[in-house]
Amino acid sequence: MSAFNAIGDEREIDRDEYTPGIEPQPTWCPGCGDFGVLKALKQALPEAGKTPEEVLTVTGIGCSGKLNSYLDTYGFHTIHGRALPVARAAKLANPELEVIAAGGDGDGYGIGGNHFIHSARENHDMTYIVFNNEIFGLTKGQTSPTSPKGHKSKTQPSGSAKTPLRPLSMSLNAGASYVARTAAVNPNQAKEIIKEAIEHDGFAHIDFLTQCPTWNKDARQYVPYIDVQESEDYDFDTTDRSEAAEMMRETEDVLNEGTVLTGRYYVDEDRQSYSQEKKAVGEMPDQPLAERYFDDDAEWERSYDLLDRHR
Amino acid sequence: MSDDELIWRIAGGSGDGIDSTSQNFAKALMRSGLNVFTHRHYPSRIRGGHTYVEIRAAAHEVQSRGDGYNFLLALGDSFARNPQEEAYYGNEEIKPLSENLDDLREGGVIIYDEGLVSEDDVEALDLEERAEENDWHVYPLDLRGLAKEHGREVMRNTAGVGATAALLDMELEHIEDLMEDAMGGDVLEANIEILHEAYDSVNEEYEFNHDLRAPTGEHDAEQALLSGSNAIAYGAIDAGCRFISGYPMTPWTDVFTILSQNFPDMGGISEQVEDEIAAAALAVGASHAGVKAMSGSSGGGFALMSEPLGLAEMTETPLVLIEAMRAGPSTGMPTKPEQGDLEHVLYTSQGDSQRVVFAPGSIEEAYEQTRLAFDIAWDYQIPTIIVYDQKLSGENTNVDVEFFDREPSPDLGSTLTEEELREAAHDNSGKFKRFNHEDAENGVAPRSLPGQKDGRYLATGNEHNPVGHISEDPDNRVHQMDRRLEKLESIRTELDEERESTQTYFGEDDAEYGIITWGSSQGAVEEAIERLNANGHSVKGLSVSDMVPFPEREVTEFVESVDEAMVVEMNATAQFRGLLQKELGRFGEKLTSLLKYNGNPFEPAEIVEGYEVNLADEDREPTAQVRIEPAAGD
C-alpha cells in the first residue's frame, strides 16, 4: 500500500483544481508573459492526467519563481538558481512524483548554469521551463545572460559587450533529450509543448519566451512568431542532432534580428533517463525510497552487520 | 608518558601503501588484546611526499596519539622527487628517517630500509652520534632487497612489519591472519614468505640491545577498529539515512565514500554532483520528498552550502550536514587538522537563521551524535550540523563491537501520514496549514510530503503564512519567527533535561583548576588531566559537544566551580572561548587559552606543559609550537 495516494489517482481533473482556492494576487505586471506559462500549465497538466497533489513544482527566484504561488500543486520555491538540484533529488527520492522545475533566464542560464548543464547531462526525468524574457525583471531591468549584445541597462550603461548565451544549443550539447522553444504569445503551442515535455521520459527543457512589458519587449515584439514545424520554410529532423543543432543556431541568431522561431528542436525518445541508468548500475532502489519510511515491514540494515571488515 | 606502550611510526611516501600496512598492523595489535589509537599524517599529493602513520598500542586505554613515538620503521619514499641542492621541499628521500627524528623517545628503536635510503644521506643526519646520545637502537635492513628476492619490491612494507615483529618479540599469527583476509594466491604466498624471512633474518643476524617490547593485554569483549568517519557514516545508517549527496573534498570525502559504498546494498542513493551548492540543495530536495538525507563538506565546500542551509532552515526541511574541518583559511593545508571553522559553521547564512551544531570528541561520540543529529533534525525540522576535523576523521581506535548492537531509527519525526493529514488543520480553501503557528507544540508544525493526499502546500525561502504563501504581513512575520526560534529553545530543554548530556567530564569534582576543550582535542586533554593529577596537580576537565544550543547550565557550573580554567583548541583565534564568553556573557577574567595551529594535533604532553606554564604560574615559555592567550585583564 502506498503512503502517497495522490500519485496515480485516475480521475477526471478539472483545470480549476490547479488554481488556489484563496488565490494570492499575482505580483506579475499586466501583460507579463508569465501568465502565459501559468495558463499553459493549467491546461497541460490535466490533459496529461496529472492531479495537483502528485505534482511538485520547484522554482527559483525572480518573477518566474512565483509560478507555484499561483499553481496549486505541491510547491517548493527555492533560492536563486537552485531549483534544479532540489527538483532532481525530490525525483530520485520519489520517482513517482511528476516534477516540474522552473525559473528565469538569469536563474537558469546565469547563476544556476552549472546545475542546468549537469541536470541536462544526467537526463533527469523532469520538465524544466525557463521563463526567458531576456532581462532581469524583478530587480528592475538589468542585462541578463540572454540579453542581446549592445543591450543598455543601468548596469550596462554603454550597452552590453557580451553576445547572448545560446540556450537551445547549450541544452543540446549538455545532453537534454527534449529541447523546445515556445512563447507566451502562442498559447496553443505552449500547452502542447508542455504536455509533450511532461510525457517525455528524460530531461525536457523548454525555453519559454515571456515578454517583460515593463523592462523589455512587450507581447507585440514576439509577434509574428513562426512555428518551425508548421512553416514550410524550415525542414529538419528533430531526432537528428546535427540538423537540430543547425536549426537551434539559426533560431538563436535570428531572435535578435526580430524573427521569433519556436517549436520542437530535438527529441530523443531512446535515451534512458537518469533513474533508469542509475537502476541499471545497481545504485537506485526499484521501489520509491520515500515509500520505505512508511512501510512497517521494511527491514532496516544496521551498521552492526558491517563490522566484519573492522575486526 | 608511560613506558608500557608502543608508539610505532611507519614512514614513507604517499602511494607506498603506508596506510593499508598500518591499518593491518593496528588490527593485529588490537587482536593481540591491546588498545590502539592511530594518527595519520599525509601531504596533499597523490604520489610521494612524506607520509606517516603512528599506532599507539597499550594494555591501558589510549585516547590520543600520545607523545612522540618509540619505534620508527622508515621505509624510504619510492616516489621522492629528489632534489637538486637546496630543493624547496628539502631532501625527500631521507624524510621518512629524518622527519621529526627528535620526537623519537629515549631508548627508541629505528629500522630503516638500506635499499632505499642512501648511505650519504644517513651520514648527513649524524645518526650514529644522535643514537648514542639518545640511546636509540638502529637496525639498518635491506627491506627492498629482501622483498625483491622473494616477491616484488612493493612488498618491502611486509618485510618491515616482519622485522618490527621480530624486534618487538611479537608472534606473527595475527599479522598472517590479516594478510590472509586481505589477499590470496601468489601475492599472499610471497608476502607470507617475506614476512617470515624478515622475521627470521632479524632474529638470526642481530643481538637485540633494546628494551622495548610489544605490550601484552587482553580485551573483555570483541573489538572493532574504526575511524571517526566510519562512526559518522554508521550513525547515519542506523538513523535511517539513505540519501547522501556530495562533492569530493578532503577530509569529508571519507564519510561520503563509506556511505556511497554501502548504500547500493541498502537501497540507498548516493549522488556525486557538480558542486557543493548542488550537494546541499539535493539533500534538501530529497528530505522535502520524504527521505532521510544528508550532505557535507570541508571548509571551502561548506562555504558553498551556506544558502541551501538557510533554505532548509526557512522551509523547515530536516537536514543533516557534516563539516570536516581542515587547516584554513582558503585552501589552507588540505590534509592537516584544525578546529578553525567553528565560527563559520555557527554563523554562516544570512538573517537570524537557526541551526543545531554538535562537535563529537571521540569515535563513540561521533556515532551517537550523528544519530542524535538525525533525531533532532527530523523531530524539529531544523538543519543540524556535525562539525569534526581531519584528526577525528582519520584516526582509528578500537571500540567494543557490542557498542553498535542497536535498533535502527528510521522514524521521520514530525511528518504526518495521509490519515493524520485528513485530521490536520486546513484553510478555508482546503489547503494544508503546513506552517501553522497556532497550535504548534515546541514550535514544531508537522509537515506533509509531496504526493500525499490533502497535504498540498508551498515551501518557500521567503517569509510565508501558515499555508506557505509568501507574506510580508508584520503580525505573521513575528508569529513565524517566534515559532521557529521556539524550536531551538525546545531543543535546548530536551538536550538539557530529557537526554543524557553529550558533554564529557574528567577528573575529580572538587578540583581547583579546569581545562575546557571541544571536539577532537578531547582525548589528548583527558590524558593530560590524568597525568597532571598523577603529578600532584588538582585539575578537572570538560569537553563540550553541544555548540548550538550551547549548554549554558553545564558550562557555567563548571567554570564557577574552579579558580581558573584553560581552554584548549586547535586554532589561532580562540573561537570556542569566544563562543563560551558570548553565550555566558562573563568569565573573561577566568579563562585563558592554549592554542595550536601548526597542522598537527595536540600531544598530551603539550597540554601538560601549557597548563604548567599557564595555570601553575611557572615562569617560562612553552617549548611546544603552541600559543597561550591570557585571561582578560592579565
TrEMBL record, chain A:
CDD domains given for it? TPP_OGFOR
- Thiamine pyrophosphate enzyme TPP-binding domain span: 61-208
**Cofactor(s) listed:** [4Fe-4S] cluster
Family matches, as InterPro entries: 2-oxoacid:Fd_oxidoreductase (IPR051457), OFOB (IPR011896), THDP-binding (IPR029061), TPP_enzyme_TPP-bd (IPR011766)
Name the domain of life this protein comes from: Archaea
TM ranges are none
For this UniProt record, give its keywords in alphabetical order, as a comma-separated list.
Answer: Oxidoreductase, Pyruvate
MF GO annotations = oxidoreductase activity, acting on the aldehyde or oxo group of donors, iron-sulfur protein as acceptor; thiamine pyrophosphate binding
Query: Does Oxidoreductase show up as a keyword for this record?
Result: yes
Entry annotated with the keyword DNA-binding: no
Q: Which GO terms describe its biological process?
A: cellular respiration; organic acid metabolic process; sulfur compound biosynthetic process
Q: Report what the protein is called.
A: Pyruvate ferredoxin/flavodoxin oxidoreductase subunit beta
Q: Which organism is it from?
A: Natrialba asiatica (strain ATCC 700177 / DSM 12278 / JCM 9576 / FERM P-10747 / NBRC 102637 / 172P1)
Q: Recite the lineage of the species.
A: Archaea, Methanobacteriati, Methanobacteriota, Stenosarchaea group, Halobacteria
UniProtKB/TrEMBL annotation, chain B:
Which residues, if any, are the signal sequence? none
Spell out the CDD domains in the cross-references. TPP_PYR_PFOR_IOR-alpha_like (cd07034)
Task: Say which enzyme class the record assigns.
Answer: oxidoreductase
Return one Gene Ontology term, BP aspect: response to oxidative stress
Recorded catalytic reaction(s): these are: 2 oxidized [2Fe-2S]-[ferredoxin] + 2-oxoglutarate + CoA = succinyl-CoA + 2 reduced [2Fe-2S]-[ferredoxin] + CO2 + H(+)
Tell me which UniProt keywords the record has, alphabetically: Oxidoreductase
Keyword hit for Ribosomal protein: no
Q: Which SUPFAM superfamilies does this entry report, sorted A to Z?
A: Pyruvate-ferredoxin oxidoreductase, PFOR, domain III, Thiamin diphosphate-binding fold (THDP-binding), TK C-terminal domain-like
In residue numbers, the region (Disordered) covers: 437-475
Query: What EC identifiers does the entry list?
Result: 1.2.7.3
Please list the residue ranges annotated as the Pyruvate/ketoisovalerate oxidoreductase catalytic domain: 15-200
Annotated ranges, domain Pyruvate flavodoxin/ferredoxin oxidoreductase pyrimidine binding? 235-481
Where does the Pyruvate:ferredoxin oxidoreductase core domain lie? Answer: 511-586
Write out the GO MF terms. Answer: 2-oxoglutarate synthase activity
- Subunit info? Heterotetramer of the KorA, KorB, KorC and KorD subunits.
Q: What name does UniProt use for this protein?
A: 2-oxoglutarate synthase subunit KorA
